[in-house]
Amino acid sequence: MRKLLLAIIVCGLSTSSLSADDWPQWMGPERDGVWRETGIVEAIPASGLPVKWRVPIAGGYSGPAVAAGRVYVTDFKMQSGTLLNNPGSRNELSGNERIWCLDANDGTLVWKYEYDCPYRLSYAVGPRATPTIADGRVYALGAMGNLTCLNAADGAVLWGHDLAQEYSVEVPIWGFCGHPLVDGDTVYCLVGGDGSVAVAFDAATGKEKWRALSAKEPGYCPPTMIEAGGTRQLLIWHPESINSLNPQTGEVYWSIPLEPNYGMSIMAPQISGGYLFASGIGDVGALLRLDRNKPAADVVWRSDATTGVHCANSTPLIHEGTIYGCECKGGQLRGVDLLTGKRLWETLAPTSGTRRPASHGTAFLVRHDERYFLFSETGDLILANLTPEAYEEIGRFHVLDPTSESFGRAVVWSHPAFANRCVFARNDKELVCVSLSADE
Question: Does position 14 have pLDDT exceeding 50, yes or no?
Protein backbone atom coordinates (compact mmCIF):
# COMPACT_ATOMS: atom_id res chain seq x y z
CA MET A 1 0.00 0.00 0.00
CA ARG A 2 2.86 2.38 0.87
CA LYS A 3 4.46 1.71 -2.54
CA LEU A 4 1.13 2.27 -4.29
CA LEU A 5 0.61 5.59 -2.54
CA LEU A 6 4.16 6.64 -3.41
CA ALA A 7 3.58 5.72 -7.05
CA ILE A 8 0.36 7.75 -7.14
CA ILE A 9 2.09 10.77 -5.58
CA VAL A 10 5.04 10.55 -7.99
CA CYS A 11 2.70 10.14 -10.93
CA GLY A 12 0.68 13.14 -9.78
CA LEU A 13 3.80 15.27 -9.38
CA SER A 14 5.04 14.21 -12.79
CA THR A 15 1.74 15.04 -14.42
CA SER A 16 1.67 18.42 -12.72
CA SER A 17 5.23 19.28 -13.73
CA LEU A 18 4.51 18.34 -17.32
CA SER A 19 1.25 20.25 -17.59
CA ALA A 20 1.12 22.72 -20.43
CA ASP A 21 -0.69 26.03 -20.81
CA ASP A 22 -3.12 26.88 -23.59
CA TRP A 23 -3.22 30.01 -25.74
CA PRO A 24 -6.92 29.91 -26.64
CA GLN A 25 -7.30 33.40 -28.07
CA TRP A 26 -5.48 36.50 -29.27
CA MET A 27 -2.75 37.61 -26.83
CA GLY A 28 -3.22 34.57 -24.61
CA PRO A 29 -5.57 33.25 -21.91
CA GLU A 30 -6.04 36.66 -20.26
CA ARG A 31 -5.57 38.74 -23.42
CA ASP A 32 -2.71 40.48 -21.65
CA GLY A 33 0.27 39.23 -23.68
CA VAL A 34 1.71 37.33 -20.71
CA TRP A 35 2.93 33.73 -21.05
CA ARG A 36 2.84 32.01 -17.65
CA GLU A 37 4.09 28.55 -18.55
CA THR A 38 7.19 27.18 -16.77
CA GLY A 39 10.10 25.12 -18.06
CA ILE A 40 10.96 27.59 -20.83
CA VAL A 41 14.43 28.21 -22.31
CA GLU A 42 16.52 30.90 -20.67
CA ALA A 43 18.44 31.63 -23.87
CA ILE A 44 18.28 30.94 -27.60
CA PRO A 45 21.29 28.77 -28.48
CA ALA A 46 23.56 29.70 -31.38
CA SER A 47 22.61 26.39 -32.99
CA GLY A 48 18.97 27.46 -33.05
CA LEU A 49 15.74 26.03 -31.65
CA PRO A 50 14.13 22.67 -32.49
CA VAL A 51 11.44 22.92 -35.18
CA LYS A 52 8.80 20.32 -34.30
CA TRP A 53 6.74 20.60 -37.48
CA ARG A 54 5.72 22.73 -40.45
CA VAL A 55 2.34 22.55 -42.19
CA PRO A 56 1.34 24.29 -45.44
CA ILE A 57 -1.48 26.86 -45.20
CA ALA A 58 -2.57 29.83 -47.30
CA GLY A 59 -2.76 33.58 -46.68
CA GLY A 60 -3.80 35.40 -43.55
CA TYR A 61 -2.89 37.89 -40.85
CA SER A 62 -4.80 35.95 -38.18
CA GLY A 63 -2.74 34.31 -35.49
CA PRO A 64 -3.14 30.71 -34.31
CA ALA A 65 -4.92 29.70 -31.11
CA VAL A 66 -4.00 26.60 -29.10
CA ALA A 67 -6.35 24.72 -26.77
CA ALA A 68 -6.60 21.17 -25.42
CA GLY A 69 -3.81 19.84 -27.62
CA ARG A 70 -5.12 21.36 -30.84
CA VAL A 71 -4.17 24.35 -32.98
CA TYR A 72 -6.80 26.48 -34.71
CA VAL A 73 -5.93 28.89 -37.52
CA THR A 74 -7.76 30.57 -40.41
CA ASP A 75 -6.62 31.36 -43.95
CA PHE A 76 -7.82 32.41 -47.41
CA LYS A 77 -7.30 30.17 -50.43
CA MET A 78 -7.38 32.50 -53.42
CA GLN A 79 -8.95 31.09 -56.59
CA SER A 80 -8.76 34.06 -58.97
CA GLY A 81 -7.62 37.66 -59.05
CA THR A 82 -4.31 39.41 -58.47
CA LEU A 83 -3.27 40.37 -54.96
CA LEU A 84 -2.26 44.04 -54.81
CA ASN A 85 -1.37 45.52 -51.44
CA ASN A 86 -2.50 49.08 -52.06
CA PRO A 87 -3.44 50.72 -48.74
CA GLY A 88 -5.83 53.16 -50.41
CA SER A 89 -7.93 50.90 -52.63
CA ARG A 90 -9.84 47.62 -52.45
CA ASN A 91 -8.64 44.42 -54.12
CA GLU A 92 -11.27 42.07 -55.57
CA LEU A 93 -10.44 38.36 -55.27
CA SER A 94 -12.41 35.14 -55.30
CA GLY A 95 -11.66 32.27 -52.97
CA ASN A 96 -12.51 30.40 -49.80
CA GLU A 97 -11.92 31.26 -46.17
CA ARG A 98 -10.92 28.19 -44.17
CA ILE A 99 -10.78 27.25 -40.49
CA TRP A 100 -8.18 24.61 -39.68
CA CYS A 101 -7.93 22.35 -36.64
CA LEU A 102 -4.59 20.56 -36.29
CA ASP A 103 -2.97 18.27 -33.73
CA ALA A 104 -0.61 20.46 -31.68
CA ASN A 105 1.93 17.65 -31.29
CA ASP A 106 2.60 16.91 -34.94
CA GLY A 107 0.49 19.26 -37.07
CA THR A 108 -1.71 16.54 -38.54
CA LEU A 109 -5.16 17.58 -39.72
CA VAL A 110 -8.06 16.94 -37.32
CA TRP A 111 -10.75 18.76 -39.32
CA LYS A 112 -11.20 21.68 -41.72
CA TYR A 113 -14.20 23.91 -42.47
CA GLU A 114 -14.36 26.24 -45.48
CA TYR A 115 -16.82 28.50 -47.23
CA ASP A 116 -16.93 30.63 -50.37
CA CYS A 117 -15.90 34.19 -49.56
CA PRO A 118 -15.19 36.75 -52.30
CA TYR A 119 -12.90 39.51 -51.05
CA ARG A 120 -13.16 43.23 -51.65
CA LEU A 121 -10.50 44.60 -49.35
CA SER A 122 -7.22 46.45 -49.14
CA TYR A 123 -4.41 44.07 -48.16
CA ALA A 124 -6.66 41.13 -49.10
CA VAL A 125 -4.24 38.41 -48.02
CA GLY A 126 -6.66 36.66 -45.70
CA PRO A 127 -8.48 36.73 -42.34
CA ARG A 128 -7.30 39.10 -39.63
CA ALA A 129 -8.90 37.88 -36.41
CA THR A 130 -7.45 35.06 -34.31
CA PRO A 131 -9.99 32.34 -33.46
CA THR A 132 -11.28 32.28 -29.89
CA ILE A 133 -11.69 28.87 -28.22
CA ALA A 134 -14.05 28.64 -25.23
CA ASP A 135 -16.30 25.98 -23.70
CA GLY A 136 -15.68 23.48 -26.48
CA ARG A 137 -16.51 25.98 -29.21
CA VAL A 138 -14.48 27.83 -31.85
CA TYR A 139 -15.44 31.41 -32.71
CA ALA A 140 -13.90 32.61 -35.97
CA LEU A 141 -14.37 35.99 -37.64
CA GLY A 142 -13.50 36.28 -41.33
CA ALA A 143 -12.22 39.38 -43.10
CA MET A 144 -15.58 40.04 -44.80
CA GLY A 145 -17.56 39.67 -41.56
CA ASN A 146 -18.49 35.98 -41.46
CA LEU A 147 -18.80 35.12 -37.76
CA THR A 148 -18.87 31.34 -37.37
CA CYS A 149 -19.23 29.21 -34.24
CA LEU A 150 -18.03 25.61 -34.60
CA ASN A 151 -17.83 22.57 -32.37
CA ALA A 152 -14.17 22.40 -31.40
CA ALA A 153 -14.18 18.60 -31.41
CA ASP A 154 -15.33 17.95 -34.97
CA GLY A 155 -15.81 21.30 -36.75
CA ALA A 156 -19.61 21.03 -36.94
CA VAL A 157 -21.26 24.42 -37.47
CA LEU A 158 -23.30 25.50 -34.44
CA TRP A 159 -24.34 28.95 -35.64
CA GLY A 160 -23.16 31.84 -37.77
CA HIS A 161 -23.79 35.43 -38.84
CA ASP A 162 -22.93 37.45 -41.92
CA LEU A 163 -22.28 40.63 -39.97
CA ALA A 164 -21.95 42.94 -42.97
CA GLN A 165 -25.23 41.81 -44.48
CA GLU A 166 -27.30 41.44 -41.33
CA TYR A 167 -26.28 44.81 -39.89
CA SER A 168 -26.16 46.69 -43.24
CA VAL A 169 -22.50 47.51 -42.79
CA GLU A 170 -19.96 48.34 -45.46
CA VAL A 171 -16.98 46.09 -44.85
CA PRO A 172 -14.13 48.27 -43.53
CA ILE A 173 -11.45 48.86 -46.15
CA TRP A 174 -9.02 46.68 -44.19
CA GLY A 175 -11.65 44.11 -43.27
CA PHE A 176 -13.19 42.91 -40.03
CA CYS A 177 -10.31 42.69 -37.55
CA GLY A 178 -11.69 42.78 -34.00
CA HIS A 179 -10.87 39.43 -32.39
CA PRO A 180 -14.13 38.08 -30.86
CA LEU A 181 -14.18 38.29 -27.06
CA VAL A 182 -15.92 35.48 -25.17
CA ASP A 183 -16.75 36.32 -21.57
CA GLY A 184 -18.99 33.91 -19.68
CA ASP A 185 -22.04 33.12 -21.80
CA THR A 186 -21.56 36.06 -24.17
CA VAL A 187 -19.44 36.73 -27.25
CA TYR A 188 -18.73 40.39 -27.98
CA CYS A 189 -17.98 41.61 -31.50
CA LEU A 190 -17.05 44.82 -33.25
CA VAL A 191 -19.58 45.16 -36.07
CA GLY A 192 -20.43 48.70 -37.19
CA GLY A 193 -23.50 50.48 -38.49
CA ASP A 194 -26.15 52.64 -36.86
CA GLY A 195 -26.43 51.65 -33.21
CA SER A 196 -24.48 48.43 -33.69
CA VAL A 197 -20.76 49.20 -33.52
CA ALA A 198 -20.70 46.73 -30.61
CA VAL A 199 -22.93 43.66 -30.59
CA ALA A 200 -23.28 40.98 -27.89
CA PHE A 201 -24.38 37.46 -28.86
CA ASP A 202 -25.33 34.46 -26.78
CA ALA A 203 -22.23 32.30 -26.95
CA ALA A 204 -24.14 29.03 -27.24
CA THR A 205 -26.92 29.99 -29.66
CA GLY A 206 -25.67 33.09 -31.49
CA LYS A 207 -28.84 35.01 -30.59
CA GLU A 208 -28.29 38.75 -30.29
CA LYS A 209 -28.43 40.01 -26.71
CA TRP A 210 -27.91 43.72 -27.34
CA ARG A 211 -26.34 46.23 -29.70
CA ALA A 212 -24.83 49.63 -28.92
CA LEU A 213 -22.96 52.69 -30.23
CA SER A 214 -22.91 54.50 -33.55
CA ALA A 215 -19.93 55.82 -35.49
CA LYS A 216 -19.05 56.63 -39.10
CA GLU A 217 -16.66 53.65 -39.07
CA PRO A 218 -16.30 50.76 -36.62
CA GLY A 219 -12.49 50.72 -36.65
CA TYR A 220 -10.44 47.59 -36.03
CA CYS A 221 -9.99 47.42 -32.25
CA PRO A 222 -11.02 44.21 -30.46
CA PRO A 223 -13.49 44.41 -27.56
CA THR A 224 -11.71 44.48 -24.19
CA MET A 225 -12.99 43.61 -20.72
CA ILE A 226 -11.61 45.40 -17.68
CA GLU A 227 -12.56 45.87 -14.04
CA ALA A 228 -12.27 49.35 -12.56
CA GLY A 229 -14.23 51.40 -10.06
CA GLY A 230 -15.62 48.16 -8.67
CA THR A 231 -17.34 47.49 -12.00
CA ARG A 232 -16.73 45.20 -14.95
CA GLN A 233 -16.54 47.34 -18.07
CA LEU A 234 -16.51 46.45 -21.76
CA LEU A 235 -14.25 48.79 -23.73
CA ILE A 236 -15.06 49.61 -27.34
CA TRP A 237 -12.70 52.00 -29.13
CA HIS A 238 -14.10 53.09 -32.45
CA PRO A 239 -12.39 55.84 -34.53
CA GLU A 240 -14.17 58.63 -32.68
CA SER A 241 -13.92 57.71 -29.00
CA ILE A 242 -13.08 55.13 -26.34
CA ASN A 243 -16.30 53.92 -24.75
CA SER A 244 -16.98 51.97 -21.57
CA LEU A 245 -20.14 49.86 -21.64
CA ASN A 246 -22.13 47.74 -19.22
CA PRO A 247 -21.32 44.21 -20.49
CA GLN A 248 -24.83 43.01 -19.61
CA THR A 249 -26.84 45.69 -21.37
CA GLY A 250 -24.60 47.81 -23.63
CA GLU A 251 -25.39 50.92 -21.57
CA VAL A 252 -22.62 53.53 -21.97
CA TYR A 253 -20.81 54.32 -18.72
CA TRP A 254 -18.37 56.87 -20.14
CA SER A 255 -16.91 58.06 -23.44
CA ILE A 256 -13.72 60.03 -24.19
CA PRO A 257 -12.77 61.33 -27.66
CA LEU A 258 -9.72 59.71 -29.27
CA GLU A 259 -9.60 60.00 -33.05
CA PRO A 260 -6.74 58.35 -34.99
CA ASN A 261 -6.27 59.04 -38.69
CA TYR A 262 -7.91 56.91 -41.39
CA GLY A 263 -10.35 55.33 -38.94
CA MET A 264 -7.46 53.23 -37.58
CA SER A 265 -8.40 52.51 -33.99
CA ILE A 266 -6.53 49.20 -33.79
CA MET A 267 -4.68 48.40 -30.57
CA ALA A 268 -6.62 47.12 -27.57
CA PRO A 269 -6.58 49.74 -24.77
CA GLN A 270 -4.22 48.55 -22.05
CA ILE A 271 -4.94 48.82 -18.34
CA SER A 272 -2.21 49.22 -15.74
CA GLY A 273 -3.22 49.83 -12.15
CA GLY A 274 -5.70 52.67 -12.26
CA TYR A 275 -4.68 53.85 -15.73
CA LEU A 276 -5.69 53.05 -19.30
CA PHE A 277 -3.57 53.73 -22.40
CA ALA A 278 -4.51 53.76 -26.08
CA SER A 279 -2.95 55.27 -29.20
CA GLY A 280 -2.97 55.22 -32.98
CA ILE A 281 -1.73 56.69 -36.24
CA GLY A 282 -1.56 60.47 -36.51
CA ASP A 283 0.31 61.09 -33.24
CA VAL A 284 -2.90 60.33 -31.38
CA GLY A 285 -2.69 58.80 -27.92
CA ALA A 286 -3.92 59.28 -24.38
CA LEU A 287 -3.47 58.05 -20.85
CA LEU A 288 -6.73 57.92 -18.92
CA ARG A 289 -7.17 57.77 -15.16
CA LEU A 290 -9.90 55.33 -14.15
CA ASP A 291 -12.10 56.37 -11.26
CA ARG A 292 -11.63 54.16 -8.19
CA ASN A 293 -15.22 54.30 -7.01
CA LYS A 294 -17.39 54.23 -10.13
CA PRO A 295 -17.14 53.60 -13.88
CA ALA A 296 -15.66 56.91 -15.04
CA ALA A 297 -12.39 58.22 -16.51
CA ASP A 298 -10.52 61.44 -17.24
CA VAL A 299 -7.47 62.34 -19.33
CA VAL A 300 -4.03 62.49 -17.69
CA TRP A 301 -2.10 63.36 -20.88
CA ARG A 302 -2.42 63.29 -24.64
CA SER A 303 0.57 62.53 -26.83
CA ASP A 304 2.00 64.45 -29.77
CA ALA A 305 4.82 64.04 -32.28
CA THR A 306 7.45 64.13 -29.52
CA THR A 307 5.78 62.10 -26.76
CA GLY A 308 4.22 58.69 -26.29
CA VAL A 309 4.13 55.81 -28.75
CA HIS A 310 1.48 55.52 -31.46
CA CYS A 311 0.65 51.88 -32.04
CA ALA A 312 -1.11 50.17 -34.93
CA ASN A 313 -0.40 46.58 -35.96
CA SER A 314 0.59 45.35 -32.52
CA THR A 315 -0.81 46.11 -29.09
CA PRO A 316 1.77 47.46 -26.58
CA LEU A 317 2.47 46.00 -23.16
CA ILE A 318 2.78 47.96 -19.92
CA HIS A 319 4.99 46.70 -17.12
CA GLU A 320 6.01 48.45 -13.91
CA GLY A 321 5.26 51.94 -15.16
CA THR A 322 6.72 51.64 -18.68
CA ILE A 323 4.90 51.25 -22.00
CA TYR A 324 6.65 49.07 -24.58
CA GLY A 325 5.17 49.43 -28.05
CA CYS A 326 5.85 49.93 -31.76
CA GLU A 327 5.50 53.36 -33.36
CA CYS A 328 3.33 53.20 -36.48
CA LYS A 329 4.99 56.17 -38.19
CA GLY A 330 8.59 54.99 -38.06
CA GLY A 331 8.37 51.42 -36.83
CA GLN A 332 10.55 51.88 -33.76
CA LEU A 333 10.01 49.81 -30.63
CA ARG A 334 9.85 52.39 -27.85
CA GLY A 335 10.03 52.49 -24.11
CA VAL A 336 7.77 55.26 -22.76
CA ASP A 337 7.10 56.46 -19.23
CA LEU A 338 3.48 55.65 -18.45
CA LEU A 339 2.64 58.61 -16.22
CA THR A 340 4.26 61.35 -18.35
CA GLY A 341 4.48 60.02 -21.91
CA LYS A 342 8.21 60.78 -22.00
CA ARG A 343 10.12 58.66 -24.51
CA LEU A 344 12.92 56.74 -22.84
CA TRP A 345 14.53 54.88 -25.76
CA GLU A 346 13.78 53.46 -29.19
CA THR A 347 15.19 50.87 -31.60
CA LEU A 348 14.40 49.33 -34.97
CA ALA A 349 16.33 46.12 -34.21
CA PRO A 350 13.32 43.95 -33.23
CA THR A 351 10.87 45.34 -35.81
CA SER A 352 12.06 46.00 -39.37
CA GLY A 353 15.71 45.47 -38.47
CA THR A 354 16.68 48.48 -40.57
CA ARG A 355 18.60 51.63 -39.81
CA ARG A 356 15.99 53.96 -41.25
CA PRO A 357 12.41 54.39 -40.03
CA ALA A 358 10.03 51.88 -41.63
CA SER A 359 6.34 52.74 -41.72
CA HIS A 360 4.37 50.36 -39.51
CA GLY A 361 7.47 48.39 -38.54
CA THR A 362 6.08 45.66 -36.32
CA ALA A 363 7.00 43.30 -33.51
CA PHE A 364 4.52 41.33 -31.42
CA LEU A 365 5.44 41.39 -27.72
CA VAL A 366 4.84 38.67 -25.13
CA ARG A 367 6.19 38.85 -21.58
CA HIS A 368 7.47 35.71 -19.87
CA ASP A 369 8.57 36.28 -16.26
CA GLU A 370 10.83 39.33 -16.52
CA ARG A 371 11.91 38.69 -20.12
CA TYR A 372 10.14 39.22 -23.42
CA PHE A 373 9.64 37.15 -26.53
CA LEU A 374 9.23 39.35 -29.59
CA PHE A 375 8.15 38.09 -32.99
CA SER A 376 9.44 40.49 -35.63
CA GLU A 377 7.97 41.29 -39.02
CA THR A 378 11.14 39.70 -40.44
CA GLY A 379 10.04 36.31 -39.09
CA ASP A 380 12.48 36.20 -36.19
CA LEU A 381 11.70 35.11 -32.64
CA ILE A 382 13.70 37.35 -30.32
CA LEU A 383 14.41 36.94 -26.62
CA ALA A 384 15.11 40.27 -24.94
CA ASN A 385 15.16 42.28 -21.75
CA LEU A 386 13.00 45.40 -21.85
CA THR A 387 13.57 47.92 -19.09
CA PRO A 388 13.06 51.67 -18.66
CA GLU A 389 16.77 52.03 -19.46
CA ALA A 390 17.19 50.02 -22.66
CA TYR A 391 16.34 47.25 -25.09
CA GLU A 392 18.77 44.35 -24.57
CA GLU A 393 18.63 41.51 -27.05
CA ILE A 394 19.58 38.10 -25.66
CA GLY A 395 19.19 36.05 -28.83
CA ARG A 396 17.05 35.37 -31.89
CA PHE A 397 15.97 32.53 -34.16
CA HIS A 398 14.56 32.78 -37.68
CA VAL A 399 11.23 30.95 -37.53
CA LEU A 400 9.85 31.60 -41.01
CA ASP A 401 10.21 33.95 -43.95
CA PRO A 402 8.07 37.06 -44.42
CA THR A 403 5.74 36.36 -47.33
CA SER A 404 3.55 39.46 -47.48
CA GLU A 405 4.48 42.94 -48.66
CA SER A 406 3.94 46.39 -47.23
CA PHE A 407 5.49 49.73 -48.15
CA GLY A 408 8.00 47.99 -50.41
CA ARG A 409 9.35 45.49 -47.91
CA ALA A 410 8.58 41.87 -47.06
CA VAL A 411 6.69 41.40 -43.78
CA VAL A 412 4.92 38.82 -41.65
CA TRP A 413 2.21 40.50 -39.57
CA SER A 414 0.64 37.76 -37.47
CA HIS A 415 0.64 37.40 -33.68
CA PRO A 416 2.07 33.98 -32.68
CA ALA A 417 0.72 31.69 -29.97
CA PHE A 418 2.77 30.43 -27.01
CA ALA A 419 1.58 27.12 -25.58
CA ASN A 420 2.81 23.60 -24.77
CA ARG A 421 6.28 25.09 -24.26
CA CYS A 422 6.29 26.02 -27.94
CA VAL A 423 5.72 28.98 -30.20
CA PHE A 424 3.25 28.59 -33.06
CA ALA A 425 3.71 31.13 -35.87
CA ARG A 426 2.39 31.51 -39.39
CA ASN A 427 2.99 33.38 -42.63
CA ASP A 428 1.06 33.06 -45.91
CA LYS A 429 2.56 29.68 -46.75
CA GLU A 430 3.02 27.67 -43.57
CA LEU A 431 2.26 27.24 -39.89
CA VAL A 432 5.33 26.40 -37.82
CA CYS A 433 5.75 24.91 -34.34
CA VAL A 434 9.07 25.55 -32.58
CA SER A 435 9.95 24.11 -29.20
CA LEU A 436 10.89 26.49 -26.39
CA SER A 437 11.15 23.80 -23.76
CA ALA A 438 14.17 23.97 -21.49
CA ASP A 439 14.33 20.16 -21.62
CA GLU A 440 15.10 19.95 -25.36
Answer: no
